[in-house]
Amino acid sequence: KAEEEACLQQVADLIKERSPRIVVMAGAGISTASGIPDFRSPGSGLYSNLQKYRLPYPEAAFELDYFQQNPAPFYDIVTSLWPGRHRPTATHRFMRMLHESGLLQRVYTQNIDGLEVAAGLPSELVVPVHGSFETCHVLGRPGVEVPIAELKGALDAGGEGWQALADRHGGLVKPSIVFFGEPLPKRFHELYQRDLAACDLLIVMGTALKVEPFASLTNKVRHDCMRVMINRAPVRFPYKLRLPRSSRDIFHTADCDAAVLELSELLGWKVDLEDY
Q1: Beta bridge partners of 204
Q2: For residue range 2-11, what is the model confidence (pLDDT) as tens digits?
Q3: CB within 8 A of 140, min separation 6: which ones?
């Protein structure tokens, strides 16, 4: 514990002394305090909660072929994650403070809950790597979009609602959330190389780094960039840089909110963070 506290002090010192350009990589762990379960926690994760659907394997809920056969599991997930149902956490507010301090270059998030923008981050600073609820379209009908509010109304009505929506539009309606095997959003490809090449401090929070190509972003920074991993369960960076090991990689095993509150205290920001 003392060693990890010393590591956070290194992060705080870098922020105070060098005003680094910061990129944040965020996973489901930053949103669990808002009541949104993560994906993989045994017994409480979203995948565990989908057992009632008897999926052949949990990831099938996010595969296009399976969705076309049985859209109910995916619709169940997106209903629970729909923007506006949950409040931003301390971690989301901390990212906003990084922005207001002129330090935040970009947030690359695996999450589809929209809580980064709900916390006050400008949408241009957020790249939802796995898509979002901004638009939705009809499968099998290229270019045919459906108002997102229409999909929400259908999902609120349950199975009959989304079946009627599909009949009305001639196909299942899917929000712009990325399924396994689908291309990532255009903005991701336009921005990540430039952002990570300019990054002085990479903060990775609430992710096990199990999904590519998101995980490989950790290897796109310069060799002199400090990388910080904050996660409730121990996680190692999947890629080691070629330089000899130094203090540039920092691991802090903790709840994300607890870690950012601790870091905020070291920065003298804690009162402001708690007032948000």
Answers
A1: 25, 229
A2: 566 678 999 9
A3: 170, 171
In a 13 Å sphere around the CA of 240, the CA atoms on its Cβ side amount to 5
User: How far apart, in whole angstroms, are the C-alpha atoms of residue 200 and residue 193?
Assistant: 14
Give the pair of three-digit tokens for residue 197.
Answer: 């090449």
| 52/13 Cα distance (integer angstroms) | 49
Q: Which amino acid is located at 219 in the chain?
A: N
Catalytic residue among 130, 137, 169, 252: 130
pTM equals 0.88
C-alpha radius of gyration, the chain, whole number: 19
The answer to whether residues 174 and 67 touch, using CB atoms and an 8 Å cutoff, is yes
Compute φ and ψ for 255, nearest 5 degrees: -60, 140
Task: Give the DSSP per-residue string, 171-183.
Answer: S-EEEEEPPTTSP
Tell me which residue of 4, 140, 129, 9 sits closest to 64, measured CA to CA: 140
Distance CA(107)–CA(203), nearest Å, equals: 9
Q: Which long-range contacts (CB under 8 A, 24 or more apart) does 165-173 make?
A: 169/138, 169/141, 169/144, 170/138, 170/140, 170/141, 171/138, 171/139, 171/140, 171/141, 171/144, 172/67, 172/68, 172/71, 172/138, 172/139, 173/136, 173/137, 173/138, 173/139, 173/146
Kindly report whether the peptide bond that precedes residue 213 is cis, defined as omega within 30 degrees of 0: yes
Between CA 185 and CA 139 the distance in angstroms is 17
Over residues 160-175, mean pLDDT: 95
Nearest CA to 137 among 64, 194, 199?
Answer: 64
pLDDT digits (tens, 9 = 90+) for 16-33: 999 999 999 999 999 999
Which of 105, 110, 98 lies closest to 30, judged by CA? 110
Tell me, yes or no, if 130 is annotated catalytic: yes
Query: Taking the CB of residue 57, how many other CB atoms lie within 10 A of it?
Result: 9
